[in-house]
Design goal:
This protein has about 180 residues and is α+β, with helices and mostly antiparallel strands. The protein is built from 5 helices and 8 strands, in the order E-E-H-H-H-E-E-E-H-E-H-E-E. Helix 1 crosses helix 3. The two termini are about 25 Å apart. The structure holds coenzyme A.
C-alpha cells in the first residue's frame, strides 16, 4: 500500500485524477521529460491518462509542495519487471523529475532522500539503482547527495520514447552502504 511521505517542504503522495492540469503544466515543457526518457505531454487528457496508467504503479509519488499543495514533480521506484536494466528481486531503480521553475532548491534531493529511506527501512529492499543520460549533471548530483555512487557508463540504453538509444551513467546504493 502506498504511503504519504512528509519531508520539511514536501509531501509525497499518490497521484490523483484532479492533478492532471498541474501535471500537464509541468510535463508539457521539453526541459522535463526527454532528460528522463519520455516525450513532453501534448494535452491535459494525455496527462490524465498517464496518471491513470503509468503513475498508478506501486511506489510512484507526486512531489507536492506543502506550501501550495500543488504537485510539481514525480519520484518513484521501478521494480525488476519495469526497470530499464536487470536488477535483483529485492532491488529497485529510482526515477524522478521536477518542473523547471522549482529546480536548484534541493527539492528533488529532499524527495529522493525520503524515498530511499522508505525503500530500505519499510520496503526492506537491499539495493537501489539509478541511471542518468551522460551530461545530466544535476540528476547525477541528486543521486550522489542521497548516497548513490557511480558504477559504470553503459551505451545502448533505451533513450527517448522514439526508440533511440543513449549512453547513461549507472549509479547504485546498497542498504548496507546507506
Ligand atoms: C534532475 C532534477 C530532478 C534535479 O532537481 P532539483 O530539485 O533541481 O535537484 P536539487 O536541487 O535537489 O539538486 C541538484 C544538484 O545538482 C547540481 N547541479 C545543477 N546543475 C548541474 C550540472 N549541470 N552539473 C552538475 N551539477 C549540477 C545543483 O547545484 C545541486 O547540487 P548542490 O545542492 O550540491 O548544489 C531536475 O533537474 C529535472 O527534473 N531534470 C529533468 C528530468 C531528469 O533529468 N530526471 C532525472 C532522470 S535520470
Amino acid at each position: 500500500m502506498i504511503e504519504t511521505l512528509t519531508t520539511r517542504r514536501l509531501e509525497l503522495r499518490p497521484w490523483r485524477a484532479e492533478d492532471a492540469p498541474d501535471l500537464y503544466a509541468v510535463a508539457r515543457d521539453p526541459q522535463v521529460g526527454p532528460a528522463a526518457g519520455w516525450q513532453p505531454h501534448r494535452s491535459v487528457e494525455e496527462s490524465a491518462e498517464v496518471i491513470r496508467t503509468v503513475f498508478a504503479s506501486p511506489e510512484t509519488y507526486a512531489v507536492v509542495l506543502r506550501e501550495s499543495g500543488r504537485p510539481v514533480g514525480c519520484v518513484g521506484l521501478l521494480f525488476p519487471s519495469s526497470s530499464h536494466f536487470r536488477i535483483g528481486a529485492t532491488e529497485a531503480e529510482v526515477g524522478y523529475w521536477i518542473g523547471t521553475s522549482w529546480r536548484g532548491r534541493g527539492l528533488m534531493s529532499e524527495a529522493l532522500g525520503a524515498l530511499v529511506r522508505r525503500a530500505f527501512e519499510e520496503l526492506e529492499l537491499t539495493a537501489l539503482w539509478g541511471c542518468c543520460f551522460v551530461g545530466n549533471g544535476a540528476s547525477r548530483r541528486v543521486m550522489e547527495k542521497c548516497g548513490f555512487r557511480y558504477l559504470r557508463t553503459e551505451s545502448g540504453l533505451q533513450g527517448l520514447a522514439d526508440g533511440s538509444s543513449q549512453t547513461g551513467e549507472i549509479l547504485s546504493l546498497t542498504r548496507d552502504a546507506w
